[in-house]
Amino acid sequence: MSKLDDFFQNTYEKSGAMSLDAEIHSCPELMERVQQLGFLPLLDSCVPGFCAEGMMAEECRFTQFADGSWEWPLWEWKGSVIREGNCVYGKFFAGKAGFISLEWWQDFCNWRRSQHPLPEEDSVEDTILSTLQFGGSMIARELRSACGLTGPKMRSRFDAMVNRLQMGCHIITEDFVYPTDKHGREYGFGWSLLTTPETLLGEEACQCERTPEESYERMHQHLSALLPSATDKQIIKLLK
Question: What is the pTM of this model?
Answer without folding.
Answer: 0.88
